[in-house]
Design goal:
Order of helices and strands: HHHHHHHHHHH
Distance between the termini: 101 Å
Low-confidence stretches: 41-45, 50-57
Largest sheet: none
Mean pLDDT: 77
Structural class: mainly alpha
Helix content: over 70%
Radius of gyration: 31 Å
Shape: extended
Strand content: under 5%
Length: about 300
C-alpha cells in the first residue's frame, strides 16, 4: 500500500505541476509574441538555396559566386524581372528575383545533367541514339529546366488566385456579420483573419500589418488587389474603400460582393462543364462507338462467312 500510495502521490504532483506550468497567467509574454501582431511573418528562404551559415565549406564558397554570376547573366538575357517580382509578391514568397534566377539555373543544370548522363553512357558503351541527338537533348534539357521553373511559379500563382477566389465569398460574409454586429472594419478584419485560414486571410493579415505600420487603411487594402490579378478581389477592395469614404452601409456592400462572386463562380462552372462535355465526346465517338459497332457486326460477319463457305 505504501508503494502504491507513493506512486499515486507522485503522479498527482506531476499532473498538478504540469497544469500549473500551462496556465497562461504564469508565463511571461516573450518579446517576439508582443511584436508579432505588428510585424509580417518572415517565411524561410528557398529550400534549394537555404544555406544557414554563409561561411560554409570551400565547395559552397566556390559554387555560390559562380551561381550568382550565372543567375545575373540569365536575368540579363531573358529579362522580365518586373514580371517575376510581381508574381513572387502575388505568391507571398519572400525570395528575391536574384534567388529565383539562381533556382532557374539549378533547374537548368538538373535538366542538362540528364542529357549529359545519357550522352556519356552512349559514348562509353556505343549503344543508343546518335551522339548528336543526345547533345541536342542536353541543350533542350537546359532550356526546359529554366522554363519549367518559371512555369512552376506561374502555376503556383494561378492556384493561389483560385483559392483566394473560392475563399472570397465566405470571408466577405463573415466580414458582413462582424460589421453588422457593430464592429469597425479594422476590428472586423482582425476578428475574421484571426480565425480564418487560407490564402486570402494571409493577404488580409498582411494588409492589417501594413495599416498598423502606418499606411492608410484604404491604401493597405489596395495593396491586396495590386498583388493579385483577380477582378473580383479588386471589386471587393473598391467596394470597401468606397463604402468607407461615402458612408455606405458596409454590411450590405459585403453581402452584395459575396453574391456577385458566387454568381461568377457558378457561371464559370457552367462554362467549364460545357467545355468538358465536348471533350468527353472524343473518346465516345472515336473509341466506344467503334468498339460497340465492331462487337455488334462481328458475330453476323462470322456467320455469313461460314454460310458462304
Amino acid at each position: 500500500m505504501s508503494a502504491a500510495g507513493a506512486g499515486i502521490g507522485l503522479l498527482s504532483a506531476m499532473g498538478l505541476l504540469l497544469a500549473v506550468s500551462r496556465l497562461p497567467a504564469m508565463r511571461r509574454p516573450r518579446l517576439a509574441d508582443r511584436l508579432a501582431p505588428y510585424l509580417l511573418g518572415a517565411a524561410p528562404p528557398s529550400s534549394l538555396l537555404a544555406t544557414g551559415d554563409r561561411t560554409g565549406g570551400p565547395l559552397r564558397q566556390l559554387i555560390t559566386p559562380a551561381l550568382s554570376s550565372l543567375a545575373t547573366s540569365a536575368d540579363r538575357i531573358v529579362g522580365g524581372s518586373a514580371a517575376v517580382r510581381r508574381r513572387l509578391a502575388a505568391l507571398g514568397n519572400p525570395i528575391t528575383v536574384e534567388v529565383f534566377r539562381q533556382e532557374q539555373v539549378l533547374w537548368s543544370a538538373c535538366g542538362g545533367l540528364i542529357g549529359l548522363v545519357l550522352l556519356t553512357t552512349r559514348l562509353g558503351t556505343g549503344v543508343g541514339p546518335p551522339p548528336l541527338s543526345l547533345a541536342g537533348l542536353t541543350v533542350v534539357g537546359v532550356i526546359g529546366g529554366f522554363v519549367a521553373r518559371d512555369q512552376a511559379l506561374t502555376r503556383s500563382v494561378r492556384r493561389r488566385d483560385e483559392r483566394m477566389e473560392l475563399e472570397l465569398p465566405t470571408v466577405a460574409e463573415l466580414l458582413a456579420l462582424a460589421v453588422g454586429a457593430g464592429e469597425t472594419p479594422v476590428a472586423a478584419l482582425e476578428r475574421v483573419t484571426g480565425r480564418a485560414t487560407g490564402a486570402l486571410s494571409s493577404e488580409l493579415r498582411r494588409a492589417l500589418a501594413d495599416a498598423r505600420a502606418g499606411a492608410p487603411f484604404a491604401v493597405a487594402l489596395a495593396g491586396v488587389a495590386d498583388r493579385t490579378s483577380l477582378p473580383a478581389l479588386a471589386r471587393f477592395v473598391d467596394g470597401i474603400t468606397v463604402a468607407l469614404q461615402r458612408g455606405t452601409p458596409l454590411a450590405e456592400v459585403l453581402r452584395a460582393q459575396a453574391f456577385d462572386v458566387r454568381e461568377a463562380g457558378r457561371r464559370r462552372l457552367l462554362e467549364l462543364g460545357g467545355k468538358r462535355e465536348i471533350a468527353m465526346m472524343i473518346p465516345v465517338v472515336f473509341l466506344v462507338l467503334p468498339v460497340t459497332i465492331l462487337f455488334a457486326l462481328f458475330p453476323g460477319a462470322v456467320t455469313l462467312t461460314s454460310i458462304a463457305r
